[in-house]
Amino acid sequence: MLIGKVVGSVVSTRKCENLTGNKFMIVEVLEHMHSGAKQLIAIDKIGAGIGEYVLVAQGSAARIGSGMPDSPVDAAIVGIIDDGSGLE
C-alpha cells in the first residue's frame, strides 16, 4: 500500500463498460514511498478530494478493495488519511 496526495482528476467519457460511473483521480505518490512512477491514476470509490492524503492499493488488492474484481483496475484509493503527521 502507498500513501499519496490527490493532485487532480481525469475525465474519460469512453471507457470499459464496467468502469462507467467511477471517478478517477491523479495521485502523487510521496517521495519516500515510490519506486518508479511519481504519479498514478487511481479509481476512487470513497470520495477523496484534491489536496487530501490517501491510501492507495495496487494490483489485485486494488480490484478487490474497490469491489471490482473483474475490472481493469490497477490502483484504487482505499482510504483518506485523517492524521498523517510527518507525511511530507
Structural overview:
The chain is mainly beta. It has one domain (2-80): OB fold (Dihydrolipoamide Acetyltransferase, E2P), CATH 2.40.50.220. 7% of the residues lie in helices and 39% in strands. It has 1 helix and 5 strands, in the order ββββαβ. It has one helix spanning 60-65; strands spanning 2-10, 23-29, 39-44, 53-58, 75-80. It has a 5-stranded mixed β-barrel with strand order 1-2-3-5-4. The longest helix has 6 residues, at 60-65. The two termini are 17 Å apart. 24% of the residues are buried. The model has no long low-confidence stretch (mean pLDDT 88).
Notable characteristics:
88 residues; mainly beta; OB fold (Dihydrolipoamide Acetyltransferase, E2P); 5-stranded mixed β-barrel; 1 helix; 7% helix; 39% strand; globular
